[in-house]
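Hey all, quick one. A colleague (J.T.) asked me to put the iron/sulfur cluster job into the tracker so the inputs and the structure tokens live in one place instead of scattered across chat threads. No bug as far as I know, just bookkeeping. Sequence used:
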Amino acid sequence: MTVFYMPKIIHEKEKCIGCGACAAVCPDFWDMGDDGKSVLKGGKKVGKNFELTVKDAGCNEDAANTCPVQCIIVK
Ligand code: SF4
């Protein structure tokens, strides 16, 4: 049986300090918003967070690793 694993990207936006690192290492998924915090492109608001399910986490692993406040989670 093949199990398809779809990674979920979670942005805990409240914690974001707007350093821009995620947008620098992973511009396909991250951008900087007018509020000075980053934006997960195509992310859906879920409670206080933004979430996006993707086929391939791609550079989001790098974004999560580079975020100084660890507010990007790849599940
Ligand atoms: S790397 Fe983290 S703190 Fe910096 S802008 Fe991105 S989400 Fe915000």
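Adding what we noticed when we looked at it: The first strand starts at residue 8 and ends at 11. The CA atoms of residues 45 and 72 lie 14 Å apart.
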